[in-house]
């Protein structure tokens, strides 16, 4: 079978993951050895880009249960060394979440089972322990309808270039100071779709910057909540307005005064 078909069958979405070897054990279970291609990584500590390899570790991942037996996956993970700050870190992979050892497609399978049966049955069907399945639910790895709190904040931030998007949107529970979700981009449609997928019945306040796009998304989906501009965004708007006035005045005065004003933005 072709390697890329196997990768697809295993539910692996990361294009950097390649098949090294496939072997079959005496008990009919399959073992798939995977590796990744070396490529430039961004240091999660300081942002410097590096290709320097620090070492390797084999990580065992539980694969799906196929009708003819279990699939065990061994991934050779690479640890990089950042030459700027000296720290080491594992490469980021889309196939496995950072701290969990269950491949994402198995999680989805488990979710489906759990929708029909008890945790115990679901765990048995998905071939994982009940504790592990419960933990996945606790960590909210498995999606349920999100109930948004009374006050939320929506803001964009420069993320990690996931999927080629420079900006991501973060949704925060203001009163409990907790991150609720991170959306893949900052498009109005994405935000609207997200809000629509949530239970927004109790949202009364939305803190955000003064972008009319965010405002449109929020008003379209939430009706008429109290919109609060946070201090930073409010001050930035004031600063821009002031700066505009400065430029205007600057254009009208004589050359010497103009140069003086230009050099003293904080005047
Ligand atoms: Zn670094």
Structure characteristics:
alpha/beta; 4 domains; Nucleotidyltransferase, domain 5; 8 helices; 33% helix; 5-stranded mixed sheet; binds zinc ion; 267 residues; 12 strands
Question: What can you see in these coordinates?
Answer:
The protein has 267 residues and is of the alpha/beta class. The protein folds into four domains: 2-97, no CATH class; 102-142; 151-229, Ribonuclease H-like superfamily/Ribonuclease H (Nucleotidyltransferase, domain 5), CATH 3.30.420; 232-263. 33% of the residues lie in helices and 29% in strands. The chain contains eight helices and twelve strands. The chain has helices spanning 3-9, 104-116, 119-125, 130-138, 188-197, 212-222, 231-252, 255-263; strands at residues 17-24, 30-36, 41-42, 49-50, 53-66, 69-81, 88-90, 151-158, 167-173, 178-183, 205-208, 226-229. The strands form three sheets. Strands 1, 2, 5, 6 and 7 form a five-stranded mixed beta sheet that branches. Strand 8 (151-158) and strand 9 (167-173) form a beta hairpin. Helix 2 packs across helix 3 and helix 3 packs across helix 4. Mean pLDDT is 76; it is low at 97-101. Residues 43, 45-46, 48, 82, 84-85, 87 line the site of zinc ion.
Describe what is shown at a glance.
This protein has about 270 residues and is an alpha/beta fold.
